[in-house]
Amino acid sequence: MATIEMSNIKKRYPNGADVIHDVSLAIADGEFMVLVGPSGCGKTTLLRMIAGLEDITDGDMKIGDRRVNEVSPKDRDIAMVFQNYALYPHMSVRDNIGFALKLKKTDPGEIKRKVEEAAELLGLTPYLESKPRQLSGGQRQRVAMGRAIVREPSVFLMDEPLSNLDAKLRVKMRSEILKIQRRLGVATVYVTHDQTEAMTMGDRVAVLSKGNILQCDTPQNLYDHPVDQFVASFIGSPSINMYSAQLSEGAKSIRIGGEYVELTDVAHISHPNLASYANSRITVGIRPEDFELVDKGTPNSITATVELVEALGSELLVHFNTDAKAVVVEGAKDEEETILEASGAGIARVEPRAGVKAGDIIGLRPNPAVMHFFDVNTELAIY
Amino acid sequence: MKVTRVGWKRYINGVNFGVVVVILFVMLPIYWLVISSLKQPASLGATPPQFFPNPLSLANYRDAFHTYGFGIYFRNSVVVTVVTTILVLFFGSLAGYGLGRLPMRGKSAILITLLIISLFPGIAVVPPLYLLERTVGILNSYQALIVPYTAFNLPFAIWILRNYFQGIPKEMEETGRIDGASPWKIYWSIVMPQALPGLFTAGVFTFTAAWTEFLMALTFNNSNNYRTIPVGIALFGTPFNIPYGTIFAASVVAVIPIGILVFVFRKSVVSGLTSGSVKG
Questions:
Q1: CATH code assigned to A4-233
Q2: Per-domain residue ranges for chain B?
Q3: B64-274 is a CATH 1.10.3720.10 domain
Q4: Is A13 part of the contact surface with chain B (CB cutoff 8 Å)?
Q5: What is the pLDDT of residues A277-288, one digit of tens each?
Q6: Nearest to B77 by CA among B253, B265, B243
Q7: How far is residue A210 from each of residues A22, A38, A197, B31, measured CA to CA in Å?
Q8: Which CATH architecture has domain A234-375?
Q9: ipTM score of the complex?
């Protein structure tokens, strides 16, 4: 059981590449902290620095009360689960799980007891004598977990442990990992590029981009109060719709494409700084579920052409096009996704039985109370 | 309509026919070698040729060992080859691991140098090596062959093993580090067991090369006490008499160890050669 404290951590490779700029983060004991970001954002490097597999160029790394910058991985009292599990193919499940204990010269009876306890917890008891190659992906993943658990470390580190599993199994293992973590109460740092995984698992989620932590907060706060355009568009699926817009009549209404949407008092109360952007260009962000489907031409609505409707049963995802100019945040979405989008494209989440079909011209009325506003230059959120 | 053949007839197809042809092509000379070694001198050149030795005779084997001192050559070959193989595998695996894994400057320069060494024509290095060994004073000894054999077989072994080590996920070693294993322990308990096929490949190749090497063995060791099998067999003949039967018998004995090795390790050898090229 321990906390992790990083202050002003920096990482520069010998070739001069800066991968971690200046990261400070404190992880409480027993907390499940998720590091999320697009590939190349430095999340795995940061995790490896906690593990001691990468040198720390500058800053302090503390586990518990101890500064561990120069402490070797084995003395940091951590356990790590890798994306490819890194099971030893020539050892049985039992030996894989017990390897670390054997290295510590633990008494054989004790090893047996601990390994069997972990196997019981993970449902691996029937497979103890199997070799990793005889196991399915999910079972291998559990062996990797077992190997981490038996050591009773004070910190768990997990590097995309679920990304080699198929979608269904991933959802199942998500909750299993959470259950185990809750039961053991060990501080956990979990790296993923999947924002859904981050949102569903993390007590807190740190969003990284280009070697910086942009925001670290609870999943709900990240969703409701993103600090900038990147976090807003990275978190949430389908992504937030962002358009370039103009405040008019001071800041009474906002022009999105050719249409005006009145900003109610609620918007101004929750975003007092909006007034200082009177009559200037800003970026507006609207979550897919914050649109109301109305007839075209309804006041305060945006006229949109329906391009495609995805019926998910519980809801409809309406892909639409408007005359507004969409703002694309670099790196926050998969590239394929952005290439396919027209310049004023967006997605609205509406009622399942709304009866919308491709080719329809509809009105979408955004809810001003939950709109997000961003500075055009700094891309920071305006509150 | 496709006819489903039953019984032994279902094995009749083009692929199996090809296999049979290849097997015959390879096996017939070996068969001839073995039966000839069991013939008496008179039956050796008989017309028409005897496909089954009649009468069967072990005289050739007795001759090879008693009259021609084949036992000494065999012992010398075993010593030289086994020591060479052990040395090559020991140095080759360490060097291969270093070149495959550790952060190191000038890796590619080293690897290219190794490649050049292994491509060097043997005949070109024999004269200088002879002078060198004469100066050092190790002509006519086991090390006269062990040292150059090790040197010339190492590059290939290093390349094979390096490829093998590179195919082992880094995370396994990192897990080992986190679990508290020392570098030596990681090497022995985690890396080596997974590199076994690579070791077998390099081992079989080295063994075969050293076992059959002729030129250096002939040049460096001309004392009968240190001759190896290939040279020994070649010198069985005299200007007046070439004892074919004895040569056949000795050759059979010489082929056996390699045959066993390749047979036992055939799967590993193939997988060792293809590793690195095919991931997964």
A1: 3.40.50.300
A2: 1-57, 64-274
A3: yes
A4: no
A5: 999 999 999 999
A6: B253
A7: 11, 9, 20, 69
A8: Beta Barrel (2.40)
A9: 0.81
